[in-house]
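Running log. JK asked me to keep both predictions on one page so they can be read side by side. First protein, sequence followed by its tokens:
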Amino acid sequence: MYRVAILTISDRGARSEREDRSGPALAEAIAGLPGAEVVARAVVPDERAEIEAALRRWVAEGLDLILTTGGTGFSPRDVTPEATRAVIDREAPGLAEAMRAASLRVTPHAMLSRAVAGMASCTLIVNLPGSPKAACENLHTILPALPHGLDKLRGDPAECATP
């Protein structure tokens, strides 16, 4: 079983001024990953410290996969990639490259994505766009590779040191 968390990054969502639609859409879409169970969800503002804290908490809990949605564009408040890089030990650039390549077939705006993916201990963290449609499209792009990647990442549990 893969334990999954979904972190929505949205100032308005965190203030309850806007309904989180991306988080629930991703929770539904993750059903495409056999054995996956969403065990945690949260909404935080576009604040690097709060994003990092949520990611670090879930890594410490030993979750297998953390999906973030939002904060990956060019807006000055979009700091999700920076927060993610502060938490991960190693990047997994192929995942982000695959998502951008697939999205470019849909919209030229895909080249504006700054999303990253990487590993913190034995947890994979993947940044996804903020729109429900784009987030799910990106997730579907990488779903076929996730079981193998997550299994390899698990490796020997003794090797999974919490940062």
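And the second, directly underneath as requested:
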Amino acid sequence: MKVRSSLKSLKSRHRACQVVRRRGRVYVINKKDPRFKARAG
């Protein structure tokens, strides 16, 4: 999992990427390709 201050570029890496808010943090998750995971902050 990558930790970034901005997730805008990471969202466009794969078509199945989704931006999700959980417990006050912003995550990028991808169910089809779990390598593309990221967290903001």
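Observation for JK regarding the second prediction: The first strand starts at residue 2 and ends at 4.
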